[in-house]
Automatic annotation (TrEMBL):
This is Ribulose-phosphate 3-epimerase. It comes from Candidatus Enterocloster faecavium. GO terms for molecular function: D-ribulose-phosphate 3-epimerase activity; metal ion binding. The gene is rpe. Pfam families: Ribul_P_3_epim (PF00834). InterPro entries: Aldolase_TIM (IPR013785), Ribul_P_3_epim (IPR026019), Ribul_P_3_epim-like (IPR000056), RibuloseP-bd_barrel (IPR011060). It is an enzyme of class 5 (isomerase).
Length: 220
């Protein structure tokens, strides 16, 4: 099953609730929420108050991407704000196994993200503990960047690793995802797609529909 996760970083924050609702009505099952601390990544985005206020606008899965140092400090608060799926960076966790356990203990699905230059082999010991692995296809911290081509090989390698263990874990990709390159990502083994500008620029409903049409075409 292919899933679109529009990233609100690219949305008009003056009309955020309305924009998110449009993505849900058009068929996007997830909404992607990037929490940035200005330390792990250069940018600062938003935190729990925005998540909490947005929760009332949609029943979409809240796919929360924690781009913060030592994210274990915030797991309970992020859960209370409405998160369904919490993804932390391998590079940001001194004790990754412990943080994965914290996410599951909070009642959320657990994801782990890898920066473009981090090899997928670093997750070998926790593959069977996570629900989703996020391959960053740009360097994290800013929207609107161009897709890094070599990350496609990482997706293929990861899908092969998962299949060898008999795991059906979701592979999410985030960064520069468009209707032009999404087919290549699907063929490589990704099934959850974060898209910011490609969704929220101009016609939100039409942009979501374009992705959904590609998904249906691939599934048929």
């Amino acid at each position: 099953m292919y899933i679109l996760a529009p990233s609100i970083l690219a949305a008009d924050f003056g009309k955020l609730g309305e924009a998110v609702k449009k993505t849900e009505d058009a068929g996007a099952a997830y909404i992607h929420l990037d929490v940035m601390d200005g330390a792990f990544v250069p940018s600062i985005s938003f935190g729990m108050p925005v998540l909490s206020s947005l929760r009332g606008y949609t029943s979409q899965v809240f796919d929360v991407h924690m781009m913060v140092e030592e994210p274990g400090r915030y797991i309970e608060d992020i859960k209370k704000a409405g998160a369904d799926l919490i993804t932390v960076h391998q590079e940001a966790c001194v004790h990754l196994d412990r943080v994965i356990g914290q996410i599951k203990a909070a009642g959320c699905r657990a994801g782990v993200a890898l920066n473009p230059a981090t090899p997928v082999s670093t997750l070998e010991c926790v593959l069977d503990q996570v629900d989703l692995i996020l391959i960053m296809t740009v360097n994290p911290g800013f929207g609107g960047q161009k897709f890094i081509p070599y990350t496609l090989k990482k997706v293929r390698t990861l899908r092969r690793m998962l299949e060898e263990r008999g795991l059906q874990t979701d592979i999410e990709v985030d960064g520069g995802v468009t209707t032009e390159n999404v087919r290549a990502l699907m063929e490589a083994g990704a099934n959850v797609f974060v898209a910011g500008s490609a969704v929220f620029k101009n016609d939100i409903s039409g942009n979501v529909k374009a992705f959904m049409d590609i998904f249906k075409e691939q599934e048929s």
